[in-house]
Amino acid sequence: GGIITQTPKFLIGQEGQKLTLKCQQNFNHDTMYWYRQDSGKGLRLIYYSITENDLQKGDLSEGYDASREKKSSFSLTVTSAQKNEMAVFLCASSITGGNTEVFFGKGTRLTVV
Amino acid sequence: GEKVEQHESTLSVREGDSAVINCTYTDTASSYFPWYKQEAGKSLHFVIDIRSNVDRKQSQRLIVLLDKKAKRFSLHITATQPEDSAIYFCAASSNTGNYKYVFGAGTRLKVIA
Q1: Bridge partners of residue A110, in order along the sequence
Q2: What is the β-pairing status of strands B102-103 and B107-112?
Q3: Which residues in A88-100 are b (16+ Cβ under 10 Å) and which e?
Q4: How far is A16 from chain B (nearest CA, A)?
Q5: Which chain A residues are Cβ-neighbours of B105 within 8 angstroms?
Q6: Which of A90, A104, B38, B60 has its CA at 20 to 30 Å from residue A68's CA atom?
Q7: Which residues of B touch A (CB under 8 A)?
Q8: Are A108 and A10 in contact (CB under 8 A)?
Q9: Residue B11 near residue B106 (C-beta atoms within 8 A)
Q10: What chain B residue is nearest to A106 in terms of C-alpha separation?
Q11: Which residues face B76 on adjacent strands?
Q12: Do B99 and A106 touch (CB under 8 A)?
């Protein structure tokens, strides 16, 4: 089995700050995703990547940048943190080329003060 | 784009009874419908899925039904147990190659002993 590791687990930032969240997977999956989870709103796709150096926008990409530095890692940057923002960011991965199970990391909980 | 609506935001059932969670989707091209479970303090994990070439799938106490005409699918948990208490998310994706999974807002299921 594999694992998805997200760092940090908790992130406290200040308004206007640029914040970076990291994700590593050892499944050898081609596709990786970043989702934002807000209470009562489910998961919303921010960015995804189907291979190294690829980047595709999701429905919630405004205010974020992403980078797929290598196959095993996918990072997400909040370009300017919004005051009182609070959400959990979930990294996930799956095999490309078919509708298959998506594996999730444990999440990074962001609080902006 | 695809929208997935999860009809029950919360659901309480007595231990041993069945629980049913309903989802509808909008994109007729959607062909893969997974369900994920999120236990308290943990990330999401896959529980069962159904593809559009069948209308029913069962895995132990979990049954998924798919009505393509109505663009509706549902998760039935039979003989519920306290450990079934969690948030359940439905999702949909298509074979159009965009690798996007669209999630519902989640249903918080509570099994009362």
Answers
A1: A11, A87
A2: unpaired
A3: bbbbbbbebeebb
A4: 28
A5: 40-42
A6: B38
A7: 1, 6, 9, 31-32, 34, 36, 42-46, 49, 51, 89, 93, 95, 98-106
A8: yes
A9: no
A10: B43
A11: B20, B63
A12: no
Task: Give the span between the Cα atoms of A89 and A36, in whole angstroms.
Answer: 5
Which member of A41, A99, A104 has the closest CB to residue B44? Answer: A104
Question: Do the Cβ atoms of A45 and A38 come closer than 8 Å?
Answer: no
The token pair at A25 is 């997977």
Distance of CA A24 to the CA centre of its chain: 10
Cα dihedral B42, A49, A112, A62 sign: negative
pLDDT of residue B96: 67
pLDDT at site B95: 67
Model confidence pLDDT, tens digit, residues B29-83: 899 999 999 998 888 999 999 999 999 999 999 999 999 999 999 999 999 999 9
Q: Do B89 and A40 touch (CB under 8 A)?
A: no
Please provide residue B82's backbone torsions phi and psi, each rounded to the nearest 5 degrees. -55, -35
Residue of A39, A22, A37 whose CA lies nearest to A78: A22
* pLDDT at residue A95 greater than cutoff 90: no
- What residues contact B60, with CB distance under 8 A and at least 6 apart? none
Helical H segments across A44-85, by residue range = none
Query: Residue B46, Cα to own-chain centre: how many angstroms?
Result: 10
Query: Which of B31, B10, B29 is CA-nearest to residue B21?
Result: B10
Check CB contact under 8 Å for B34 and A102. Answer: yes
